[in-house]
Specification:
Layout: H1 2-23, H2 29-32, H3 46-57, H4 76-84, H5 87-92, H6 110-121
Length: 127
Amino acid sequence: MVHLIIRKATLITGIAAIALLSSCYYDNVEELYPQSPDCDTTNISYATDIFPVIDANCIACHSGSAPSGNVSLSNYSEILAASQNGSLLGTIKHEPGWSPMPKNGNKLDDCTISKLEVWVAVGSPDN
């Protein structure tokens, strides 16, 4: 009888230890969502990395005398304003509350979005 009680206590202790250890697992974002080694987000430049994306994906609708949604992105100061008010990242990341862009198009790839995020995070410099 004593052996049966000891076995049950050992089993319960073992299960409790496993449960406690598994609940302490730490998720590292970099390990869970690794960035492609081909995506270099260091030294992001407006002229090299940012404006070409805007030009290829936004300018057709967001420029001229009647830009779509009354949002013009045809020059640095307009793009800077969109980066500062949150609309640039909100729309390209398809966040709730923002109209997903490019309109009727696919979401930009993760690397491009990462570059835009880094550029905005460092103050959206014109270099």
